[in-house]
Amino acid sequence: MIFEIDNVELYFDDKPILKAAYVKAETGKVTGLLGRNGSGKSSLLKILFGTLKPKYKLLRIDKKPVLKRFYKTGRVAMLPQFPLLSPTILVEKAFKLYNIDFGDFSSIFSEMNSVKHQKIRDLSGGQQRIIEIYLVLKRNADIVLLDEPFAQLSPLMIEKFSEIIQQQKQQKAIIITDHRYEAILDVSDDIYLFQHKQTTLVHSAKELVQMGYLPG
Ligand SMILES: Nc1ncnc2c1ncn2[C@@H]1O[C@H](COP(=O)(O)OP(=O)(O)OP(=O)(O)O)[C@@H](O)[C@H]1O
């Protein structure tokens, strides 16, 4: 399945943020988005998900236009940059709500075994994020959007999630953005750089240096 978001034109209060931006994602691949702060990565994810309305955009699945807000189709799962779960929900209840097995989770993240009966608000920021990323990644969806999943995670957790992302991409398209660019370069099959209000497909870290995103 091929997902394309094309000709994205976004303004906030007459200020242009994106002009003719394009991103393609497909089942079996991870698409990484890189770019400086404020370059429009989160906005593009929200536009794709359907919670932010731009001046113009065209969303296509396998070349056919999708006119509905995408989240209403039930085919997309999104991890926003900010907390997803209610602070008062019990961890085991959150897993039930998402229809995901806690046992499978705790066999990968054994250090999280003890939090099953706790409320989300009683976990550390990183522990909360681990649960959120896992639930969104494992959710039954055709495409998963991850906005800064790695920001609060220790290196070992990033490695574990990179493995889960590789497993999950077998059945899904995944789009991910994060400032941990080494992790994004490792996990992604395709990379887009957000720059000058547009998106460019890049092929190497060297290109990212030449384009002024990475220090030389
Ligand atoms: N609701 C809003 N109202 C006005 N301006 C906004 C709004 N949301 C985002 N912006 C502006 O749009 C631009 C793009 O923001 P966005 O969050 O998409 O960038 P980003 O690339 O995800 O940044 P970061 O990497 O820092 O999270 C920024 O200049 C931001 O100030």
TrEMBL record:
<feature type="domain" description="ABC transporter">
    <location>
        <begin position="3"/>
        <end position="214"/>
    </location>
</feature>
<keyword id="KW-0813">Transport</keyword>
<keyword id="KW-0547">Nucleotide-binding</keyword>
<keyword id="KW-0067">ATP-binding</keyword>
<dbReference type="Pfam" id="PF00005">
    <property type="entry name" value="ABC_tran"/>
</dbReference>
<dbReference type="InterPro" id="IPR027417">
    <property type="entry name" value="P-loop_NTPase"/>
</dbReference>
<dbReference type="GO" id="GO:0016887">
    <property type="term" value="F:ATP hydrolysis activity"/>
</dbReference>
<protein>
    <submittedName>
        <fullName>ABC transporter ATP-binding protein</fullName>
    </submittedName>
</protein>
<dbReference type="InterPro" id="IPR003439">
    <property type="entry name" value="ABC_transporter-like_ATP-bd"/>
</dbReference>
<dbReference type="InterPro" id="IPR003593">
    <property type="entry name" value="AAA+_ATPase"/>
</dbReference>
<dbReference type="InterPro" id="IPR050153">
    <property type="entry name" value="Metal_Ion_Import_ABC"/>
</dbReference>
<dbReference type="GO" id="GO:0005524">
    <property type="term" value="F:ATP binding"/>
</dbReference>
